[in-house]
Every structure is written in C-alpha cells, then in structure tokens.
Design goal:
2 domains, Rossmann fold, elongated, alpha/beta, 7-stranded mixed sheet, Helicase, Ruva Protein, domain 3, binds S-adenosylmethionine, single chain
C-alpha cells in the first residue's frame, strides 16, 4: 500500500513549543499499534501525528485515519498522504462530536501527546466521552501514575478520581527517552482508556468541585477542608471526615456527589 507521495527532502527540525519528540523506535511503534489493534472500518483519530511514525502502520491496518496536527509544515506534508484526512488545528479546539458524526461511528483516539498539554487534552476528550470508543495515548510516566493511582497511594488525587469514574484505565507500555528524537527528559507510558457506562445521577461539576476541595490540602483531615465546605453549604451528610482525601475511594466520592445532588434538588 502506497501511503506517502512525498519523501521529505528537507528534514523537519523538532519544534519545542509543540512538544515535538518523534518516535524512532520501531518496536515501540509496533507495540502501540498492537495495543490499539485497529480494524478495517474503525474511525481512528490520531492527535499529533507528527512525521507519521504511528500513522503509517495504523493506516496499513485500517485504511483511513483522521489526523489532527497543529504544526503547519507537518500538516502540509501529511496532506500528501491520500488515505489521511488532515485537520490542521489545535486539538483543544477540535469538535470530536462533529468528527464522530462525520464518520457515523464512535472514535478510536490515538496519540503520542505533547507533554505540556496532556492533561488539558485528556479533559477536552472527556467532554466527548460519549463519542469515543477508546483512547490509547502516550503521556509522561508521572501523569499516568496519577491517572491509575488507587487510594492510599501518594499519586492518588483529583486526576485519578475525575478520570477513573469515567474510564477503565490501564497502563499498557513503558517507553524510555531513547525511543524518541529528540529524547524527552522524562519516561513515558502508553495508557488505554475505555469509557465506562455513564452514571447519569452524578453531577460532574459538583463532583469536580468537592474533589478539588478535598484534595486542596491533602495532608489535612477532610474535616478541615471538605467538612467546612459541606457545612458552609448547609449539607448535613454522613461521611467520615476523619480521613485524608487520599484515603477515600472513587465510589465514596461518587456516593457523596449523588447525595448532595439529591439534597440540593429536594
Ligand atoms: N506522533 C508523532 C510521533 O509519535 O512521532 C509525534 C508526537 S509529538 C510528541 C506531539 C505531536 O503533537 C507533534 O507532531 C506536535 O506538532 C503535535 N501537537 C502539539 N500540540 C498540538 C496541538 N495543540 N494540537 C494538535 N497537535 C499538536
């Protein structure tokens, strides 16, 4: 299958401001593609295809792909690939619902994300969770540690709770700096994120607020943070506040958010 009409004659110089670290390790690329396991007909969307390290093998297996790239020069090169639909844009401004509608099916999102934007991109994708089948993204190892952390772990925090109640999250691959050109200063991890059935009785904004308050001073007991917040709002609820935020499992934060929602509308 011929994918590219251009053999870039001018070498692209990595742009720091776009977090460009290009994968140059074929075994890592193969492992990412195996984790995604693309099937013909999948609505694949790649965030930041760069020079196409992952794009190429994905296209071979899937036949078509939408690529979102902010770098004008890279986007121009990618446009020469006939099977690729290139969206030259900042991913944070892309309407994934429109992409899913255009494809007529849920999206499978893939990306070796720019590290400086990884958390904003995750929260942007969260707003389109209903249009997403799954996500395989590469992020800084420390961010992934926070995403998958369980209660009692030092990495367990707002990011863990706000993602774990919406997705099943699994670290699938560790990637060292030497797999990139230029090498980043940090280790990377690829995660698989699969949307969970929505909990329609939870107010996401309310949950976000109470979790932020709970973790605002993680070393303090909850009675000094969440307890005050609850009291100020007149919420009298049964909740063990003699704990630290990091000891409370996701399901208990969800239960509290459900209770508060019910109290507010009663
Ligand atoms: N996928 C390529 C690879 O693995 O070799 C490149 C990965 S590089 C870490 C991140 C890519 O995201 C770059 O191509 C960069 O230009 C692109 N990018 C950075 N910020 C972006 C944004 N806000 N919207 C879309 N693409 C962005």
């Amino acid at each position: 299958m011929s994918l590219a009409h251009d053999a870039p004659t001018v070498r692209h110089v990595a742009r720091k401001r776009f977090g460009q670290h290009f994968l140059v390790d074929d075994s890592v690329v193969a492992a990412i593609v195996a984790a995604v396991n693309p099937q013909p007909g999948d609505a694949l969307v790649e965030i930041g295809p760069g020079q196409g390290a992952i794009t190429r093998p994905l296209l071979v297996q899937c036949g078509r792909l939408t690529a979102i790239e902010i770098d004008r020069d890279l986007a121009a090169r990618l446009r020469l690939w006939p099977a690729l639909s290139v969206v030259e844009a900042d991913v944070l401004e892309v309407d994934f619902a429109a992409l899913a509608t255009a494809q007529g099916r849920k999206l499978r999102v893939v990306g070796n994300l720019p590290y400086n934007l990884s958390t904003p991109i995750l929260f942007h994708l969260l707003t389109y969770i209903e249009q997403v089948e799954d996500q395989h993204v590469m992020l800084q190892k420390e961010v992934v540690a926070r995403m998958v952390a369980r209660p009692g772990n030092k990495d367990y925090g707002r990011l863990s709770v706000m993602l774990q109640w919406r997705y099943l999250i699994e670290a699938v691959l560790s990637v060292p700096p030497s797999s990139f050109d230029p090498p980043p200063r940090v280790d990377s991890t690829v995660v698989r994120m699969q949307p969970l059935a929505p909990s329609t009785d939870v107010d996401a904004a309310l949950l976000g607020e109470l979790v932020s308050v709970a973790f605002s001073q993680r070393r303090k007991l909850l009675r000094n943070t969440l307890g005050r917040w609850l009291a100020a709002r007149g919420f009298g609820v049964e909740f063990d506040l003699q704990r630290r935020a990091e000891e409370v499992p996701v399901r208990e934060y969800l239960a509290l958010a459900r209770t508060l929602r019910a109290l507010r509308s009663s």
